[in-house]
Structure formats: C-alpha cells, structure tokens
Design brief:
Blueprint lengths: L2 E9 L2 E8 L15 E5 L1 E6 L12 H10 L2 E6 L10 H14 L3 E4 L15 H4 L16 H14 L3 E3 L12 E2 L2 H6 L3 E2 L2 H17 L3 E3 L5 H12 L4 E5 L1 H5 L20 H13 L4 E2 L14 H4 L10 H10 L6 H16 L6 E11 L18 E11 L2 E5 L1
Parallel strand pairs: 1-3, 4-5, 5-6, 7-10, 8-9, 10-11, 11-12
Antiparallel strand pairs: 1-2, 3-13, 13-14, 14-15
C-alpha cells in the first residue's frame, strides 16, 4: 500500500506524526521534504447557502460543492432561503434531485421552520423530517415567541434540532453595519447587538422549557456568548457557531466595500475577543462559514447598498490557521475539532473522507481563483498559510490541486 511518510495526522481527537497509508498516497511522492503535509478528516460546514433551486445566478450546487471540496469540506448543510422554500416534501424534493445530480460532497438540506420562511404558519415539519438535517428559517428570525415554542415542541417530537437565525426585526431600524465607531464616524445606520442577543435570550428560555435541541447560527456579539455560556451551565441543550470573519475581523477593519457586508455584521473588538474566549472555553462549539454568494453587481453597491453575505468555503482553514493557530491563539487540534469533529457530532453526520494539506504553503487570498461563483470576501489580498492539495469524499477524489 502506498504511503505518505511522517505526516501530521488527526486521530482520536489529537494530532500525531505518522505514516498515512492510502492508494492515493503516491500522488504526493513528487513533493520535496520542505512541504509539511497533514491529513485531516473532512471538514463539515453546518451553515452554507448553495442558492439552488431559485438563485442559480449566484451559486449552484455544482459550483458550491466544488468550492467546498477545494476548502477541505466533505459535508455541508445548506440553508432553506431558496425558491421554492423547502417547507414541504414536494418543495424539498426539487432540491434533493439537484443535490443527487450535481453535488460532489455530502449536502444535507435544512427544512424551513415556517411556510415560505414568513414566520406565520409552521411548515410541514413532519413531512420534511426524514429528508432534512434540522429546521431553520435562516436569513430571517422567527419573530413570534409562540410560533417558536410550537416549532420547538414539534421538532423535539420528531427528534430534530431547531437552528436559529436570531434577529429581532423591531430593533434593526434600517441598519446595515454594526452600530459602533465606524458607523458613527462615517454616517452609516447601525445594527445594535441587542437585535441578536434578545432573540437568543428568548429562545434559550424556550429550549429550557421544551427540552428541544437548539443551535444558534453565526454568533457575533459578546452578550450572545455570555447568554449561551450561562445556559449551558444550567443544562440547556444548546450549541452555537461563529464564522471566521467574526473571529478575525471587527468593525475597525471595515472598508466602503460590499465585501465587508454580512448579517450579522462585523462587530466591535470587544465582541471579537469575547468570541475568541468562547472558542477557547467551549461555549462556541464549531466554526461555520455562512458561505453566502451573490452576484458581482449585488455586491458592488458599497456598504449601504450591497446585499448581505460573503463567501468562505475556500478560505476558512487558511485564514484560521494563519490568524489563530500560527499566532498561538488556538491549538491546531482544537481548530480541527471545531471544523470537523464537533459539527459532525452535534448534527449526526459521520466522518466522510479526508483532505490533505500543505501547512508550509504561503498563499494570498485571490477571489479570481475561487471555484465558487461568489467572489465577495473580506479576506481578499490577505496573506494566509496552508493549501489544500486533495479532498476525498467517501472513496472519490473530489478535489486535486
């Protein structure tokens, strides 16, 4: 059996040096010893937008999963803000057929919590349950407390998790970036942190009351971290995610460019540091990209006019490895747990393949090279470390350098 000698391996929750035996190992025999090879379990992103059906001019399942493979991901969970919204079995079937036909990595769809993600009437959760990984109205917060309570009770009966985009519409007031120093200095309308943490506070009480498994999307505010930490200490069945841009950037890094506009927004430095602490102490369970591609025209209207959302599947590991591991903020094995082991455990997704990385490779984030149709990233031009050489999903090579 061919093997790669003296590589970094992740086994049983820890990193070790060893030989990696695999039929494909000989593909790397030409690399000089200066390359620092590592073999990681396939990453798992529980928060992506693949835009099909309905918005294939932004991204397709084919292009989005190729981008995932290039980033070392072998499983992604795709959000339901589609057309049609997967709020019943018939609508879901359209998406499942596209996945079956075009996906190169595992794609696990969410079912909507409410019909059309409109927040008024609960979706056909029972009809969706067998085909979805969990329920979410991502992109919109469920405004009604009673509706969320009903959803949690029905999801619990089905053995499914509620995955929440937490946003109180009454507190937005036309804002589009964080209500912080940059917004005040440049005359922009701000989004207060309370619009995120207030719904989290409500939902944590409901999860405690109903016993429903609950997961919080894209945590960005220090108050959110504190609330989730306290809820975990009380025994609430809650997990949460944050994204690379919230861990590595703050509103001090904003530029007058749509590639810095996402929801929730980049918040203050104190929030970023609270997220780092939440990662370290286990309050934040996983890192997801919230990969949200838009067309170039939709992202070319500055901070005020561009649509919200940035891409991240192809940059997540390199920016996090350079920004957290190399700066000794986070151990590498902890980062692998956040990207693979923890999301798989929480969402019930088994290990599925592996990726091979050259950790000694210096690189620059260049959106022109992306396999994703989306190009908007706040990390464009950033110096990073680590390059994916190959991704194997199941027994198929789905990316090779």
């Amino acid at each position: 059996m061919p093997k790669i000698q003296n590589v970094i391996l992740y086994k049983d929750g820890r990193l070790q040096r060893g030989d990696f035996e695999h039929p494909l190992a000989e593909a790397f025999s030409f690399l000089p010893a200066s390359h620092q090879l590592a073999v990681f379990p396939g990453f798992c992103d529980v928060h992506v937008h693949l835009r099909e059906p309905g918005f294939s001019y932004k991204e397709t399942i084919a292009s989005g999963t190729r981008a995932a493979a290039r980033g070392g991901y072998t499983d992604v969970c795709t959000m339901p803000n589609l057309n049609p919204v997967p709020d019943n079995a018939q609508h879901l079937a359209e998406q499942l057929e596209l996945i079956r036909k075009d996906a190169v990595v595992g794609v696990h769809p969410y079912g909507a919590i409410t019909v059309g993600e409109a927040g008024k009437e609960l979706a056909d959760l029972e009809g969706l349950a067998s085909g979805v990984v969990a329920f979410s109205d991502d992109g919109r917060g469920v405004q009604s407390e009673q509706r969320m309570r009903e959803a949690m009770l029905r999801a619990k009966a089905l053995g499914k998790m509620i995955v929440a985009h937490c946003e109180d519409d009454t507190l937005l007031k036309g804002g589009y970036i964080h209500a912080g120093a940059y917004a005040r200095a440049h005359g922009h309308r701000g989004i207060c942190s309370e619009s995120e943490w207030k719904p989290i506070e409500r939902d944590l009480k409901l999860a405690e009351e109903t016993g429903c498994a609950y997961h919080v999307c894209h945590v960005s505010a220090k108050e959110s971290v504190a609330l989730i930490r306290a809820a975990k200490a009380r025994g609430v069945d809650v997990t949460c995610e944050t994204a690379p841009h919230y861990l590595l950037l703050s509103d001090a890094d904003l530029q007058e460019d749509g590639r810095f506009k996402m929801n929730p927004p980049l918040r203050g430095e104190e929030d970023r540091l609270a997220l780092i602490e939440g990662i370290r102490d286990g309050t934040i369970d996983m890192i997801a990209t919230d990969h949200a591609p838009h067309s170039a025209a939709e992202k070319a209207r500055g901070l005020a006019g561009s649509l919200m959302g940035v891409v991240g599947l192809e940059t997540a590991f390199p920016v996090l490895y350079a920004g957290l591991v190399q700066k000794q903020i986070l151990p590498l094995e902890k980062l692998i747990r956040l990207l693979s082991e923890n999301p798989r455990r929480r969402f019930g997704l088994p290990e599925n393949g592996f990726s091979v990385w050259d950790l000694a490779a210096d690189d620059t984030v260049d959106p022109a090279k992306f396999l994703s149709m989306g190009r908007a990233t706040p990390f464009a031009g950033r110096q990073v470390r680590g390059r994916c050489l190959m991704t194997v999903c199941g027994d198929r090579v789905v990316y090779f350098m």
